[in-house]
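hey can u check if this looks right to u? its 681 residues, i copy pasted from the old doc so theres a chance i mangled smth
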Amino acid sequence: MDARPSENHMTARRSSVTNASKKQLWLTTLIDRGWLLVSVVLCLRVLPATSPAPTQGGTGVLLPDGREFVSWERPVQFAKTYYVDNRNPRSSDSNPGTKDLPFATIGKAARVLQPGERVMIMTGVYRERVDPARGGTGPDKMISYEAAPGADVVVKGSRLVKTGWEPSSEYRLTVQKPSPTTPRIYKRRLDDLEFQGYNPFGMVNIMQDRVYLKPKPEELRRHLLRRGMVYVDGKRLEQVELYEELGQRDGAFWCEHDGLTLHVRLPGDADPSEHEVELVIQEQVFAPRTRGLNYIRVKGITFEHAANAFPVPQHGMVSTSRGAFWIIEDCVLKHANSVALDIGAQDWDMVPPSTIGHTIVRRNQIIDAGVCGIAGMGVQDTLIESNLIENVGWQDVELTWETGGIKLHTTKNCLLRNNVIRHLVHAEAIWLDYLNANTRVTGNVMGDTLETLRGGIYLEASHESNMLDNNIIWKATEGKGGGSYNMPPHGGWGITVDGSDETVIAHNLIGLTQDAAIKFRTVESRIVGTRGGTSRRNKVLNNIFYRCGKAIDFSNADNSAEGNLYTNDWGEVTDENQPVGRGLNWVSGPGAPSILDLDAWQRFFGFDMHGAYADMSIEVDLDALTIAWSVKGDLPRAPVDPHFKHDLLGKAAEGSRLPGPLLQVPQQLTKMPIDPRAPGK
């Protein structure tokens, strides 16, 4: 589901039939089924002095309402194990699937596996779509797809083409001049590929439900390119719209109108028959065609190459296909044209499943997804932890409103913790969209979110309590805007709270954001559920703000801030009419904004009475996952709330805590690790 900016010029463009109305109908169905929270108690109330010991399936982590997040997962003793080994000369799908006589394909195992059974997959490259025929029947009767211990298992949605290439000469070229050589372009017919009714080289990227897609002509191009991709020696070629563009650049490809002839110009004008050329032809790589299968585990497998379309619907390279109670762990997902992993209801035009979410996504690497890393619609009781998500958003389609390292809708009782999300462009790190409730985002490191209309974390249209705490959010730049509704450039925020109430934002470090570290927007005119969005009674507590364009930007004064730490050094700003870049706090409405230093913030609004300035030097290395920093001054301390007893690295506080996500806040320059996924942290 998507998000709309709150400015008046945005609300004026709504049509009588929109995705918003479809979303409202979808949510009404959720409410009728009792999914939506009736009430969530505002956190930071008086709670027990210590966090509870983890119960069976427990995490020791409290949700905003004070309850521990408890997983449904239980130990599984598998009754039978099958084996797949396509490098074994004796392998065959007519075999019994034993270690000595293994299957040749994972697909064969997917057809025979029963609840309480698993398949062990040996080292190899498997070019197939895995289509599980059935799911398990409970936590102790799961079906598991696993890489064998030490095995390097790669499942690809592409086909290797070594033959069939010939020179391409029928089309005219526009060659950049002067050109010392004539470009060498090759072509290949695709008739021999087993498309099975889905030819992505003849299908455009544009999403099925496109009411909100109103691009300017110059922005339409990326939506009309083909879904198929070409990889040469592991690197993606750029797709061009017209054949003549191949004369202007190498490392590119073009499809004829029928999608059955491909023209390529390799880097250095190389001959494709002398390189490993992979054509991505599958929409999905691991996804049941039967929707709603439950209790499936996928472990330790690398998935590559999906030619999927822009959402919605959300059809990930790996997909639960509207199933629940899945575990996806220790996998690598890379090179998806659109979405890498989807874990929810997929499509708001469909009737919601009776059970949704209850998914565990942990210790995976998600790399190079064009639109979204993890997508989930209507997820609840879901755990997303210790994943690395990077290089997402390169398709540059943020105006379709389905982008992000993680993009979830109507979350309920969910926990997102200890993830690293970095190097995104035209995509937020985490987007929680529409009527989220009792969800906590804690202990994540995210940053380098560039040219985004949002920023690090975007919480949208949520009337119940959610919690964003103990995170590091580092560097966000604004997006360029666009669309036929002429959205201006904006964004570059660390955290955006959009039409949402009673959010707790605590103990984060936010630095180098082009605009506000925390941006609040009131969206009263957008009726979500039963009312508009007030952006009231949010709490901003014990955070550190470092060299942001602004620090806190409240949309109204019915919010609170306490114990936050601000840097004295906000960079060079010499124009007295340019408030952005000074790190000042704002109260943007109603009426003209109040633009305040800490003294005025305290004196006129009573905010941050225990807040302070400090001399800071902070450098976060998102690749090495280290922080080199010093913070000098009289730093405020806050009593330890049970929610915040542990810091980003899992260290326990006693009595009180300094601001920020780490217990240790050094006065002398100190370099520290900040990888929240580290074992034994």
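The CA atoms of residues 176 and 563 lie 59 Å apart.
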